Design the sequence.
């Protein structure tokens, strides 16, 4: 059963994807329309999303298999970070120098998208299992596209390849990411009329300082929670603001909390522990969880890991795995099954001026994805 006819190699496809300006402040419509033109209409689903006044789009390509019980998913995002003043070349005019293709998003992560699209477009027979190619919008900012896919798709027992740059490693896990905010209210008065007791009871900043001290007690215990390969959970107060003037006792103060947690930790329990620590200082404090990104861990005994190990060894001469240091949408997509991060590109190139992808690695990943499809979907 013939599915499609393909006319571009992966270099041409990546160059075309780079040429579309899909910075997070722009629409990705032209890129989505181009990718849609490569596939039969019956395989394509476009979902429009609103980001303020901006219209952005999710694209799902479903290559229907004979069965749907063990689908294979490739995931990539279409948006990029903004262009910075440090760029020395046109970020939307891809150029090749030696083994490098330069352009905005070349590594993060249009190379991964180009590689799995190329592998999928080569298919000429119907697979045994459904294959999904998910291209989401807004990953670099609010994650609207990935969250919409999670709402839209009811999948189970899936093998999920997140094609983020992985330095050619199989990234078998990541810590979870939790963002919270604590707000304190005080009673302002002029600095000339305050006192030690008044500050302790009524300064929102003083209350916030005591709240931070309580969180430091929690943080000190994290050294006892080390998990092999993942290291320790962490907590950081990354932002604090409050008050209106130096000579006025602060009537308000807030601080933000970044908590990275291990796969064996319960994020809801973490939220409860942080909330309880703060309200012991001030029961009127408002503590809110603003973002919860799940951790994930792929078992090395799984069929997915063994398949990737075989493929990686074939194309790169060795097998190596590691833990992702940051957070990716693999934490969202684990709802569907077993995720892993495995894609072309160097992490050090992500979000950098004059970003590039190594061409030989890009080509090898087309081969990797081709074989993953054959082993897991046929």
Sequence:
């Amino acid at each position: 059963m013939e599915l499609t006819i393909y006319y571009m190699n992966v270099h041409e496809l990546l160059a075309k994807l780079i040429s579309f300006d899909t910075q997070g402040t722009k629409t990705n419509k032209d890129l989505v329309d181009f990718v849609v033109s490569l596939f039969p209409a019956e395989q394509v689903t476009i979902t429009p999303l609103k980001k303020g006044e901006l219209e952005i789009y999710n694209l799902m390509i479903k290559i229907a298999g004979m069965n749907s019980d063990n689908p294979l998913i490739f995931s990539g995002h279409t948006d990029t970070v903004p262009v910075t003043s440090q760029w020395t070349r046109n970020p939307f005019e891809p150029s090749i120098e030696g083994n490098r293709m330069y352009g905005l998003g070349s590594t993060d992560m249009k190379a991964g998208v180009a590689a799995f699209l190329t592998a999928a477009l080569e298919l000429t027979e119907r697979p045994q299992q459904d294959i999904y190619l998910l291209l989401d919008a807004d990953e670099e900012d609010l994650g609207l596209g990935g969250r919409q896919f999670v709402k839209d798709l009811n999948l189970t027992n899936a093998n999920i390849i997140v094609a983020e740059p992985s330095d050619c490693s199989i990234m078998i896990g990541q810590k979870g990411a939790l963002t919270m905010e604590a707000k304190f209210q005080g009673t302002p008065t002029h600095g000339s009329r305050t006192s030690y007791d008044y500050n302790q009871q009524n300064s929102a900043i003083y209350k916030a300082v005591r709240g931070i001290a309580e969180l430091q007690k929690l943080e000190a215990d994290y050294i006892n929670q080390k998990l092999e390969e993942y290291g320790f959970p962490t907590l950081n107060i990354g932002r604090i603001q409050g008050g209106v003037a130096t000579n006025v006792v602060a009537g308000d103060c807030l601080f933000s909390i970044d908590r990275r947690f291990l796969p064996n930790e319960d994020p809801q329990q973490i939220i409860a522990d942080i909330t309880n620590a703060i309200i012991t200082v001030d029961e009127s404090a408002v503590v809110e969880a603003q973002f919860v990104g799940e951790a994930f861990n792929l078992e090395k005994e799984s069929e997915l890991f063994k398949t990737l190990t075989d493929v990686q060894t074939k194309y790169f001469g060795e097998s190596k795995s590691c833990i992702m240091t940051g957070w990716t949408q693999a934490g969202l997509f684990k709802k569907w099954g077993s995720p892993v991060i495995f894609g072309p590109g160097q992490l050090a190139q992500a979000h950098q001026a004059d970003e590039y992808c190594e061409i030989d690695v890009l080509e090898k990943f087309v081969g990797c994805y081709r074989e993953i499809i054959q082993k897991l979907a046929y």
Observations:
- Residues 1-5 have pLDDT under 50 and may be disordered.
- The two ends are 13 Å apart (CA to CA).
